[in-house]
Amino acid sequence: RDLFYDCTKIALKGERMRIAVIGLGEVGRCYAGALAQHADVRLALCEPAPSPAARALAGDLGLPIHADTG
Fold first, then answer.
1. So what's the pLDDT on residue 24?
2. What's residue 3's pLDDT?
3. Closest Cα partner for 40 from 3, 1, 8?
4. Contact 57, 32 (CB under 8 A)
5. What is the full DSSP assignment across 5-64?
6. Rounded to whole angstroms, how far apart are CA atoms 36 and 59?
7. pTM for this entry
8. Which helix (H) or strand (E) holds 66?
9. What gap in Å lies between CA 13 and CA 52, rounded to an integer?
10. Judging by beta carbons within 10 Å of its beta carbon (0-12, 13-18, 19+), is residue 29 exposed, middle or buried?
11. For residues 34 and 31, what is the distance between their CA atoms, to the nearest angstrom?
């Protein structure tokens, strides 16, 4: 079995995949923006010291930024 197979099985059952982006630097913001485009993804953002760009992205996506993964 592979990850694609497992994720597809979950998606086909009507469950949304839960994905956390840890770190909202330039690359993390890019991933978050791309993942937010998928209706089958439940996205969480985590950044202990969010920059203005990270706060702006979170606002655009309507998501909170969590300070830690706990």
1. 97
2. 74
3. 8
4. yes
5. HHHHHHHHTTPPEEEEEE--SHHHHHHHHHHTT-TTEEEEEE-SS--HHHHHHHHHHT--
6. 12
7. 0.79
8. strand 65-66
9. 37
10. buried
11. 5
| pLDDT tens sequence across 12-70 | 677 778 899 999 999 999 999 999 998 778 999 999 999 999 999 999 999 999 998 87
C-alpha distances (whole Å) from 54 to each of 8, 12, 20, 59 are 29, 32, 14, 9
Which residue, among 24, 22, 2, 4, has the nearest Cα to 12 in the 3D structure?
Answer: 4
What H or E segment, with its residue span, contains residue 65?
strand 65-66
Residue 1 has pLDDT above 60, yes or no: no
